Amino acid sequence: MEKRLKYAMVGGGAGSFIGPVHRMAVRLDDLADLIDGCYSSKDDWRAMIERVKGEADFVAVCTPNDSHYPIAKAALEAGMDVMCEKPLSLTVAEAEELGRIAGEGGRMLAIPFTYTGAPMVKLARDLVARGELGAICKTVIEYQQGSFRKIDFSKPLDKRNAWKMDPARSGPSCVVADIGVHAFTLAEYITGLKTESILADLSSFAPGNRLDDDASILMRFSGGAKASIVTSKIATGEDNGVRVRIYGDRASLFWEQESPERLVVKYATGPDRTYRRGAKYLAAEWPAAAARIPAGHPEGFIEAFANIYREFCAAVRDRKPHDFPGAREGVRAMRFVEAAVASSAADGVWRRI
Amino acid sequence: MEKRLKYAMVGGGAGSFIGPVHRMAVRLDDLADLIDGCYSSKDDWRAMIERVKGEADFVAVCTPNDSHYPIAKAALEAGMDVMCEKPLSLTVAEAEELGRIAGEGGRMLAIPFTYTGAPMVKLARDLVARGELGAICKTVIEYQQGSFRKIDFSKPLDKRNAWKMDPARSGPSCVVADIGVHAFTLAEYITGLKTESILADLSSFAPGNRLDDDASILMRFSGGAKASIVTSKIATGEDNGVRVRIYGDRASLFWEQESPERLVVKYATGPDRTYRRGAKYLAAEWPAAAARIPAGHPEGFIEAFANIYREFCAAVRDRKPHDFPGAREGVRAMRFVEAAVASSAADGVWRRI
Amino acid sequence: MEKRLKYAMVGGGAGSFIGPVHRMAVRLDDLADLIDGCYSSKDDWRAMIERVKGEADFVAVCTPNDSHYPIAKAALEAGMDVMCEKPLSLTVAEAEELGRIAGEGGRMLAIPFTYTGAPMVKLARDLVARGELGAICKTVIEYQQGSFRKIDFSKPLDKRNAWKMDPARSGPSCVVADIGVHAFTLAEYITGLKTESILADLSSFAPGNRLDDDASILMRFSGGAKASIVTSKIATGEDNGVRVRIYGDRASLFWEQESPERLVVKYATGPDRTYRRGAKYLAAEWPAAAARIPAGHPEGFIEAFANIYREFCAAVRDRKPHDFPGAREGVRAMRFVEAAVASSAADGVWRRI
Amino acid sequence: MEKRLKYAMVGGGAGSFIGPVHRMAVRLDDLADLIDGCYSSKDDWRAMIERVKGEADFVAVCTPNDSHYPIAKAALEAGMDVMCEKPLSLTVAEAEELGRIAGEGGRMLAIPFTYTGAPMVKLARDLVARGELGAICKTVIEYQQGSFRKIDFSKPLDKRNAWKMDPARSGPSCVVADIGVHAFTLAEYITGLKTESILADLSSFAPGNRLDDDASILMRFSGGAKASIVTSKIATGEDNGVRVRIYGDRASLFWEQESPERLVVKYATGPDRTYRRGAKYLAAEWPAAAARIPAGHPEGFIEAFANIYREFCAAVRDRKPHDFPGAREGVRAMRFVEAAVASSAADGVWRRI
Predict the structure, then answer these.
(1) Of B23, B258, B295, the CB nearest to A298
(2) pLDDT in tens, B114-138
(3) Number of B:D CB contacts under 8 A?
(4) Given A224, A232, A268, which is nearest D138 (Cβ)?
(5) Which chains touch A (3 or more CB pairs under 8 A)?
(6) Same-domain status, D107 and D133
(7) Phi, psi values for residue D135, rounded to 5°
(8) D300 and C298 in contact by Cβ < 8 A?
(9) Which of A268, B348, D134, D206 makes the best surface tag, with the fewest CB within 10 Å?
(10) Do you find a cis peptide bond into A87, omega within 30 degrees of 0?
(11) For an interface test with A, which of C274, C276, C277, C285 has the most A Cβ atoms less than 10 Å from its Cβ?
């Protein structure tokens, strides 16, 4: 019988959105027991790491951005695997260091870029890899939220929005670091292409926000393909509008996070094909998509999150890589953030990634 | 601190769809610990009930239809609450008896009519109750599955489809008892109306099926409103097509299970309104819809199921009713099944419910 | 060069919806010149028929239901072809007589069942005929309008609604005769099946309406397939909700009139296919769909109407049948109306068609 | 009674997509008689202009880009009004000259930016103008076609694609000049904002194409709002994917050309509103949207085109401006084209418009 995993959590206390998601995701598939937690900034996470050292298999880091690096570092150095929220750190250098520490220590480091866990995103990646789309030429990704439009700015900000708009805690970027990194990671994850350079135009629209809350970004991949990313926190009325369009010279695909169970593939000639998660025809060729419940019984965000945890926990057990985003993706996302900020500051200059 | 609940399960073993759903739903919100189970027909569920008596707070019944009644009865009589899969029994009489036993023993009896746990279905019900639609005149519900079209009939049936097509185990009806009851329950749950009589035309299209696998049903509510239900297991290409349209004299509403996070309300004059689960504007007036994760982060089938378990577990703790379908709904659904079978057998005669 | 056609119109004056549609449809493809018209009930259509006899190629009849029969009859007997609005007459007998007159006189008689002119409906019919769906088992059609909910009943009815609710002018049925016939015709047109019997439940919900404004109808086709039709004029918030679902044992199809350019075909195994009007891949196998403007440039109601006129005008020139609904469809639709009214009056009895 | 208009056409002969659209649009509403035409490049359009001078009210110019300027100029100078296809010319200077000639001669000059004629685009513009969206911050427009992916490049190009890829006939740009101008015009038309500068990344992906067939463009409006435009002819599987998202600080709107009858308005708080063309509630406040046929009876591309012709023909009669795009829009679109080409050539530099 499988050894039962144990984990501890830093962050994710009262008012947190993502902490409970981690815990629900772990419970959904009964992957591990939560044995300790440091849920408040008043508590001492170093003490907790000492407590669980040798007992916990992994630590989940759900704090604001500025403490990802020290906590992840301490946990890795204490010999535990780490599931660390994005962005992995405040700087590329820190992210690279975490990657190095994990690599040298033989530790697993995962970053829950949630949408890479969505079954239809995995199918998208697989279809591209099999050549179903032909050569990729253009990628268009939107990640539009209206969260900053739901704020009543006449009152003090709630904790979550306060730290997201605070350069000291959020780092050099707000929207690019918070959700733009999802768009960027999706682009590279699905296409399998490597971004060469980007050009960004960042804006701050929300009252009093010193960081970016809207971004339009041009991208160039190695090999000549192009991309466009728009991402925003001032996109009034959008809840979580992740929309991915990828155009190859043979076919294109479209996926929308708010209707995650469908993947549309469109051809130069021939009718569109709509793949449905869990459909029987997927089972043979691609078992992972069909696993939890049948087609037509919607799975969503928590399930996608749990898919990342499944792979991560398998790696924690096996001590070898599985299909989840890790240090490599975390580092690349930080390069994306730094390049976007620098490009925009220079008023539109292509920056290498 | 809340007493931690304990439960045991009968059925839901290898090959079961719904057993794992129960377990995931319970774990998602960390509602109870599974302390025992009788997952195979080779095991003795009576012995298990003896074992857990006095320890388990409730028993989840996930077996084929023919054993719902004896297991639920035994568990109730052993002083435990029961979450029993639909249809509650094979006959109206059995269902009524279970209701009586539960009532007299002060036991909770819940039937997981999953879709009544969907937040937007609850919003639909609330909008109707508040008069937003005016007087309800017409309800049109589809519950279309193509599951029997995915079967290779040249091979022996798998266990699940085998018992569903077997009158001895499934009861007098296949499609009406299995999924038609969801459509019926949704109709009454959302409209708040009581069905007076129905007229059904049942068919058997799948090779070798001795029970109904397709049904078209006319309904009349007390007070004069009308309804139409179509339900099928031979609706090729449909995964789980539950579509609900309810027309009042002031507005109408539309909900589709495969896109569960949206509820559309249409008016005689004025633009359509689309409500989104978890949207901030819902929070004040209707907290339950906004609870788990924010708008735009899709919740689905397991979450809806878990909503029913939340309410049921609250009732198990409080010893008073909460918002979940129970004996009343289970009995009415069985009347619907019996009336449909009888009406069709008489070649189209209105039967009272 | 082709002889240029000439036509005259009866009805379709001020306040008419459908009269202008006929004229726009004819002009869109430059099919004929309108040489005379009798647009008001104060004018004498018999005199107009005398005037245009020998000159007009055809007469378009756009009056209320009660005058379809005498006008069409007079025009046919005057040796002209006729495009007559649905329902063709007030009774089956009248419809049959018109068919006989047209047949004996070698005259073309067309009924503009608009949706049979929609390219994707023609594709649907062709796919069924080629066996793409396998054996048809179930057809589910909705034709839902909320037009009677837009009326301010505290004021006198406008002309159009007044005659539609008046048995003397509308005939024995309102909703079934007015739009139910479209649903019925679509069912037979696409499936190629013949309805054997129906069972109807008609209701009157609009204030003061003496005719049916809501109907739920069960149907049985020769050969064992079943169907369900719901149609209404009190479906608040619906504009013109024609939705067609046809289930074969191999595949199913879905078409929605308000998004007429898409046809979805769903399979027991394999992804859904969405066909788009005008797509290049359709051109080779099915030229008619690709004719007017390319895919992605929406055609709609007027274009579908014009497609019927194209075929009708081709028949007027060629003196041989083309692809448009005629006396046969007009007669069958009247049988549907009579059977629905009789079945409902008998409180739910299957009536042969 | 209104004077009946007369017009002549240059271009729009065999193989033309847009020539027939002009003629159908004019006929749909019976706006004018086509009295002469020069449909082939072998014919002499100067001779035709001489022939119709003094008789035709206007000339419709449907030729490839390189002859727009001389033909429009000649027609204006001959005292006729002009409906000239986009792009208005090959250079900004030519476009400005045409505007000057029209202005000095008191002539009407219209450019059929089709989508500005779509009722829901007009509603979008009106909602923005009334402040329904608050201050506009971000605009995201896609105009994606896969037309160049439908070409078999192993064969000689057909006439239309040949001239579009030929710099001598198409001008300095292919995709930006051909369809990017629609996206740009929509952005300014709906928002009422003026573009200050743009930054473009153009690519050529189609085999042998010397001009751009894919573009990603960043935009800055006067006053601080931002925009992003992506447009392509190599977007495999897209037919005519015009998608417009406009975000204000109070609400946002979404319109999709392939479903042109719906306009979605989303709010920071409160449910989404979906407006439908022709809906009764629009009639009072905005008559133009409700005119031709009722809600639910789809109008499409030809109808939108005809709306521009309606306004243009009214102006031709009244000798005063109506609601159609003219020289101003034509000139601005040419500035957009020139700036895009120059910005991309300089490898990403903001260029003023």
Answers:
(1) B258
(2) 999 999 999 999 999 999 999 999 9
(3) 34
(4) A232
(5) B, C, D
(6) no
(7) -75, 125
(8) yes
(9) D134
(10) yes
(11) C274
Is D223 found in the same domain as D343?
yes
Residue D22: CATH number of its domain: 3.40.50.720
Tens of pLDDT, residues A236-286? 999 999 999 999 999 999 999 999 999 999 999 899 999 999 887 775 555
A239 lies in some domain: yes
Residue A126 vs residues A88, A176, A282, B182, C89: alpha-carbon distances, Å: 26, 27, 12, 36, 59
β-pairing, C5-11 with C58-62?
Answer: parallel
Domain C-terminal end among A63, A96, A114:
A114
Is residue D302, in this structure, part of any structural domain at all?
Answer: no
Q: What is the pLDDT of residues C172-223, one digit of tens each?
A: 999 999 999 999 999 999 999 999 999 999 999 999 999 999 999 999 999 9
Q: What is the spatial distance between Cα B137 and Cα C130, in angstroms, rounded to a whole number?
A: 40
Residue B1, pLDDT score: 47
Structural domain containing residue B261? 116-295+331-352
User: Does B275 touch chain D if contact means CB atoms closer than 8 Å?
Assistant: yes
Query: For residue range D312-340, what is the model confidence (pLDDT) as tens digits?
Result: 999 999 999 999 999 999 999 999 999 99
Q: Among the three residues D97, D114, D131, which one is the final residue of a domain in this structure?
A: D114
Give the pTM. 0.97
Residue that is written with structure tokens 């504009």 in the block:
C239
List C residues 208-237 in contact with B (Cβ-Cβ < 8 A): 214, 216, 218, 220, 224, 226-228, 230, 232, 234-237
> Which residues are paired to A5 by β-bridges?
A32
Is residue A188 located within the same domain as residue A243? yes
Reported ipTM: the value is 0.96
Is the peptide bond prior to C87 cis by the omega test (within 30 degrees of 0)? yes
- Within 8 A of A272 by CB-CB distance, chain C residues are 273-274, 276
The answer to whether residue D349 neighbours chain A at the CB level (below 8 Å) is yes
> CA of B286: how far to CAs of A150, B278, B281, in Å?
17, 10, 9
Chains that touch C (3 or more CB pairs under 8 A): A, B, D
Residue pair C288/C274 in contact (Cβ under 8 Å)? The answer is no
- SS3 state at D175: helix
Distance from CA of B90 to the nearest CA of D (A): 43
| CATH number of the domain bearing residue D278 | 3.30.360.10
Q: A130 and A105 in one domain?
A: no
Chain B residues touching residue C203 (CB < 8 angstroms): 137-138, 224, 226
Of A272, A279, A281, the CB nearest to C273: A272
Half-sphere exposure of A107 (CA within 13 A, CB side): 26
| A307 within a domain of the structure (yes/no) | no
D270 and D177 in one domain? yes
Closest-CA residue to C99 (of C124, C117, C73): C73
Strand ordering across the sheet containing A5-11: A32-38, A5-11, A58-62, A81-84, A109-110
Query: Is B140 part of the contact surface with chain A (CB cutoff 8 Å)?
Result: no
CA C266 from centre of chain: 26
Which residues of chain C are within 8 Å of residue D232 when distances are taken between CB atoms?
none
Start-end of H helices in A61-135: 68-77, 92-105, 119-129
Q: Measure C43 CA to nearest chain B CA, in Å.
A: 36
Domains in chain B, number: 2
Closest CA to B243 of B115, B113, B112, B86: B115
Residues A125, A271 within the same domain: yes
Provide the token pair at C121: 């409906």
Q: Angle at the Cα of D170 (from D165 to D172), degrees rounded to 5?
A: 95
Cross-chain residue pair D273–B271, CB shorter than 8 Å? yes
Pairing between β-strand A32-38 and β-strand A5-11 as defined by DSSP bridges: parallel
Structure tokens at C73: 């009859």
